[in-house]
Amino acid sequence: PQLANQIAAGEVVERPASVVKELVENSLDAGANNIRIDIENGGATLIRIRDNGLGIAKDELALALARHATSKITSIDDLEAILSFGFRGEALASISSVSRLTLTSRTAEQNEAWQVFVQGRDQEHTIRPASHPVGTSVEVANLFFNTPARRKFLRTDKTEFAHIDEVIRRIALAKPHIVLTLTHNGKIIRQYKSAVNDQQKLKRVAAICGDDFVQHALQIDWKHDDLHLSGWVATPQSTRAQNDLNYCYINGRMVKDKVINHAIRQAYAEHLGAEQYPAFVLFLDLNPNDVDVNVHPTKHEVRFHQARLIHDFVCQGIANALLSAEQ
Ligand code: ADP
Ligand code: MG
């Protein structure tokens, strides 16, 4: 099973940023609203995520590290309507097979916290008492210490940290109410405060995407049946178009989707006759039964059951915003 874990690790654990993504998503799944991410040396020596979520009970700690052990789906039918981020039960098993992992957690029912430590191939772990508030900390030390081939692919600390920063940026956009703190080598690099009302949310978007984007963006709020498209697209007039600023979320999950990208391009082409590809931050919410998210292990891709319908809905929503901006 250890080899299987290391092979699976290749799929989900490409670099420190992928570890951060999986761990922060676990924190979100656990209902945390305050997550701190501490990074040392671009994540190569240490990644520590601390949350104030529900925690893991003492007798489930070891299980959490086992492959295909997930508490999030109980039957195959659940795969049809996945709302939580994780569902494969692979992340902790994979990460612990290529690092030295310490999991510390306390539930509200327990008076004390418990901790397990696993080290790469040697999957023996002991549970010991620890000190921790309600919630969970995961410490990943010496990533890829036992897989030198993969370690060689790590870039400079600066580059690896930039990838981590981007992961946190994406999550910060999707979950405006969550407090996120990101440190590197002991220094606070990002601190996203909780945003609840529209004004606070816009401020947070500005902190993430820049004032320039927010000042030039058209707000989208477009509904039809149980489809809802919201967010911002850059106006055609915006001079400093940040073409790489393309954030698209489906039911809160960041994706790169061809159908949606095409719809955006078409709306711009039809209304401006231009080969413009604007900056955008868009959230599409739809019935989870109408989309498959279980297409790829890293879960960047989705499959719509009615792609044409989604395409036209998104295209119309953006075209509508462009039209009203002209008036
Ligand atoms: P998955 O997220 O797909 O279920 P993971 O390997 O990421 O699989 O996590 C395994 C299990 O460990 C989860 O199902 C959850 O029960 C538990 N877990 C992991 N991280 C946390 C956390 N931060 N807070 C609470 N429970 C957690
Ligand atoms: Mg997970």
TrEMBL record:
<protein>
    <recommendedName>
        <fullName>DNA mismatch repair protein MutL</fullName>
    </recommendedName>
</protein>
<keyword id="KW-0234">DNA repair</keyword>
<dbReference type="GO" id="GO:0030983">
    <property type="term" value="F:mismatched DNA binding"/>
</dbReference>
<comment type="function">
    <text>This protein is involved in the repair of mismatches in DNA. It is required for dam-dependent methyl-directed DNA mismatch repair. May act as a 'molecular matchmaker', a protein that promotes the formation of a stable complex between two or more DNA-binding proteins in an ATP-dependent manner without itself being part of a final effector complex.</text>
</comment>
<comment type="similarity">
    <text>Belongs to the DNA mismatch repair MutL/HexB family.</text>
</comment>
<dbReference type="GO" id="GO:0005524">
    <property type="term" value="F:ATP binding"/>
</dbReference>
<dbReference type="GO" id="GO:0032300">
    <property type="term" value="C:mismatch repair complex"/>
</dbReference>
<keyword id="KW-0227">DNA damage</keyword>
<dbReference type="GO" id="GO:0140664">
    <property type="term" value="F:ATP-dependent DNA damage sensor activity"/>
</dbReference>
<dbReference type="GO" id="GO:0006298">
    <property type="term" value="P:mismatch repair"/>
</dbReference>
<feature type="domain" description="DNA mismatch repair protein S5">
    <location>
        <begin position="205"/>
        <end position="323"/>
    </location>
</feature>
<dbReference type="GO" id="GO:0016887">
    <property type="term" value="F:ATP hydrolysis activity"/>
</dbReference>
